[in-house]
Amino acid sequence: MRTGKVMGRDWAEARRADRVRLLAATLGAALAGRRRFTFELGSGHGHWLAAYAAARPEESCVGIDLISDRVEKALRKREKAGLDNLVFLKAEATEFLDALPADTLIARTFILYPDPWPKKKHHKNRFIQPESLDALAAKSAPDARLHFRTDDAAYHAWTCEALAAHPRWEILPGEPWPFEQVTFFEERMKARRDVIARRKD
Count of domains in the chain? Predict the structure, then answer.
């Protein structure tokens, strides 16, 4: 007899598979003809990525967030600015990566001021983990960049350590940050700690 725990896990996996299939269909339409794009993981209300997309109309940009209200506000910014090179979606990061079309790759990833999950028992919720970095590398173009910024010293150290230990990412200590747009959220931060890494072949 199957236990409730096993059945619960099967149900959760089935629900995740359904979400990935739906997201894949959405991405297939949204990214039609786009083979490279700039990705912001945790785009919030879309302030930063909308400014980036406006400044770089030659780039396709995709931002994701888990909060519906944030995505709706980001979409309104996109429509108001008429940014045809920008897409915002409600999605979980690993599901988004699983749903990406095989012929579409990430050129740049930005992770700006993510929740640091400061308690040790919550560290498993951080995106920067070996498995997530594996998945991101697999969906990134050769020589793609990962740009990470936080105000949290512990999460910055964690990220630097994880990237330094990972076989498919190389930290680039001298590389300048490619684009600045101070948002209301960033103005509230106490510090700015950056790390940039390159996806290795």
Answer: 1
- Specify the DSSP class assigned to residue 1: -
This prediction has a pTM of 0.90
pLDDT in tens, 93-111: 999 999 998 889 999 999 9
Q: Count, in order, helices (H) and strands (E) of the chain.
A: 7, 7
Tell me which residues are annotated as active site: 115
| pLDDT > 90: percent of the chain | 77
> Which ranges of the chain would DSSP assign to H, the alpha helix?
4-30, 47-55, 68-81, 93-99, 130-138, 153-165, 184-187
Host domain of residue 57: 4-199
Answer for the pair 133, 166: CB distance below 8 angstroms, yes or no: yes
Instruction: Assign residue 74 the CATH number of its domain.
Output: 3.40.50.150
Spatial separation of the C-alpha atoms in residues 141 and 42, rounded to whole Å = 20
What SS3 state is found at 2?
coil
